[in-house]
Amino acid sequence: VAHPGYGEPMTAPANAVAKAILDCHPTDSSPVLQHLLYLCQGRHLGWFAVPLFTDPSHAPDRGPEGAGLEPAADATGMGNRELNTVGWVLSHYGNLPLRDLGTLIRAQSPYQLADVARQSEQDARIDVDVMRRHFAAAEIAERRAEGITPEVEAAVAQMVAGAHERLKDPLHEDTPEVLEQMRARVAHHAH
Predict the structure, then answer these.
(1) What is the pTM of this model?
(2) H/E segment holding residue 66
């Protein structure tokens, strides 16, 4: 999935993502870290359709967890896209207590499906594709709730198309007339 300004997607090891989380949100709680990693993975999959990290997550009773996670010495392998995902998750979920994080995650379909498998003594790995679909649907619902429709997104994409090239053109100026035309197009698509 192409997203302007982010470059190529990167996949970092889970322990590098854990380090990025801990750099911004120090915690001594391994379960909190595991829950935040799950939410980072889910949001990243929902936005970009590629995993943030390749390490698997599992669904034990107490919430998602990965294999023996020891944070890396640094967040090597993470670009702007990946760090922005971590920052967004921390700004939305970082201050929730462990109990609330667990309740939130255990109510989500990726965890519930893996939990059913665990209860029947099968592999309780949380399926990455199920996470991608769940979090992509959640993103669409959140955008609609904020009034961001596909038509508004298309209008914005049309407005910014070619912006990098226009910025390089020293003869191009956004005159008041051009800016007013852009505002009118956005207003038209917003209603």
Answers:
(1) 0.71
(2) strand 65-66
